[in-house]
Write a structure and sequence with these properties.
With about 290 residues, the chain is an alpha/beta fold. It folds into 2 domains: about 170 residues, 3-Layer(aba) Sandwich (Rossmann fold); about 90 residues, 2-Layer Sandwich (Pantoate--beta-alanine Ligase, Chain: A,domain 2), CATH 3.30.1300. It is about 35% helix and about 20% strand. It has a 6-stranded parallel beta sheet, sandwiched between helices. A 3-stranded antiparallel beta sheet has the order 7-8-9. Helix 6 packs across helix 7 and helix 9 packs antiparallel against helix 10. It is globular. The N and C termini lie far apart (about 40 Å). The relative contact order is 0.13. The C terminus is likely disordered.
Length: about 290
């Protein structure tokens, strides 16, 4: 696996691959990789000819009081994981290259970023779309891969790609969970052992919601109340939001007559975790494994 740090070199690599008729798959990350990221790399390798993974802890994604300075980093570990899974290229742009002196242009998607995480993190998605627009312009991938745990991010990227005419297939991949049901996240490292155990209540509440809908419940408020009740029984959990929204527009829905996204965020100490599940009234959705 080769490592590229310079923008011009990365662009030249992409142009060469395209000239050879190779399809490029791109997995953007902020590093401290886990099996969720690796599942994206595997899918990129399966669907495309060349797989590029970027690692860049993007300062524009972090608010003033968030965890940019302490965000976990372990480049040697990440590099080993990527080599083992067969990534072709690791792209490591610097902050000064991404945002040189005088940088003042940002890309913003509006409606789908205002609710859910956008309510408490108002600048976050603007940072996501800005950095991705730059990365897409440099790499010119044919397909890019994102986990569905960050469902609002996935919807936002799809909207940006459509609105700005990027010729890129945006692929969403299922949430990867720990054996006890907790969604994999780089921020799980922050949790104390007690908080880590408490975090199980999130997937447990989603499993209960799916069971209720499979049993015929269609009232969104009742489903939300069920989820909130389970989480509130855990004293270490502080709910940020529990919301039921349309899977494409992310607008609030009150009746589950078609697939709807149940999204939630909660804090365990200083750590904020997110999770979600798509509720389908016709049934057929998988309940998170080991969520009980």
């Amino acid at each position: 696996m080769q490592t590229i740090e310079q923008t011009a070199e990365m662009r030249a690599w992409s142009e060469q691959a395209r000239a050879a008729g190779q399809r490029i798959g791109f997995v953007p990350t902020m590093g401290y990789l886990h099996e969720g990221h690796i599942s994206l790399v595997r899918e990129a390798r399966r669907r495309t000819d060349r797989c590029v993974v970027s690692i860049f802890v993007n300062p524009l994604q972090f608010g003033a009081n968030e965890d940019l300075s302490r965000y976990p980093r372990d480049l040697d570990r990440d590099r080993t994981m990527l080599e083992e899974v067969g990534a072709d290229t690791l792209y490591l742009p610097s902050a000064s290259a991404m945002y040189p002196a005088g940088f003042q242009t940002q890309v913003e998607v509006t409606d789908v970023t205002t609710g859910l995480c956008g309510r408490s993190r108002p600048t976050h998605f603007r940072g996501v779309t800005t950095v991705l627009a730059k990365l897409f312009n440099t790499l010119r991938p044919h397909a890019t891969f994102f986990g569905e745990k960050d469902f609002q991010q996935l919807v936002t990227v799809r909207r940006m790609v459509k609105d700005l005419d990027f010729d890129i297939d945006v692929v969403g991949m299922p949430i990867v969970r720990e054996d006890d049901g907790v969604a994999m996240s780089s921020r799980n490292k922050y949790l104390s052992s007690e908080e880590r155990t408490a975090a199980r209540c999130l997937s447990r509440s989603l499993a209960a919601a799916k069971e209720a809908v499979a049993g015929g419940e269609r009232d969104g408020r009742r489903v939300q109340g069920l989820v909130e009740g389970i989480i509130r029984k855990q004293p270490l959990a502080e709910i940020d939001y529990v919301e039921l929204v349309d899977v494409e527009s992310l607008r609030v829905v009150t009746r589950i007559e078609q697939p709807a996204l149940l999204a939630l965020a909660a804090r365990f100490g200083a750590t904020r975790l997110i999770d979600n599940a798509v509720l389908e009234p016709a049934g057929g959705c998988d309940v998170p494994k080991h969520a009980a």
